């Protein structure tokens, strides 16, 4: 009797294993690692830490706190992209940490007024402009030079 039960259980287990392999429910050990390998480890967190340190030096008060900087820049970037639902959820967190709402308004105004060079396909331009507007909403740093201007020849051709 035990032998029949063991044989039936073994058959059911084999069927379950085959079905999971066919349907793609393989164990995690067989799954491929989907992390991108092109980013060097440790560079992104150091860049963010530098941004937070710069914000604390430049901004007096709670708007310079790392949590306010992070959430505030995220909110104004989401508002720029017209993702209002997500922006309002982040704004609730921003308020919960005691961050000043007037800084959001001033930074978003700056982003609107000085955001003409933001490329919608390049996320880095939006992040850089949001950071510059967050640090100094009244007078943000100039946007980085476009790649085409950097590739221009140093000496213009002579006219005949």
List low-confidence stretches. 26-37, 147-151
Number of distinct beta strands: 0
Q: Looking at the structure, what is the overall shape?
A: elongated
Determine the strand fraction and express it as a percent band. Answer: under 5%
- Element string (H = helix, E = strand): HHHHHHH
Structural class, from secondary structure content?
Answer: mainly alpha
Characterization of this structure:
By secondary structure, the chain is mostly helical. It has a domain at 45-140. It has 7 helices and no strands. The longest helix has 22 residues, at 2-23.
Question: What is the gist of this entry?
Answer:
With 160 residues, the chain is mostly helical.
Give the arrangement of secondary structure elements.
Layout: H1 2-23, H2 43-58, H3 66-80, H4 84-96, H5 101-114, H6 123-135, H7 147-150
Helix pairs in contact: 3-4, 3-5, 3-6, 5-6
What keyword list fits this structure?
0% strand; 7 helices; 160 residues; mainly alpha
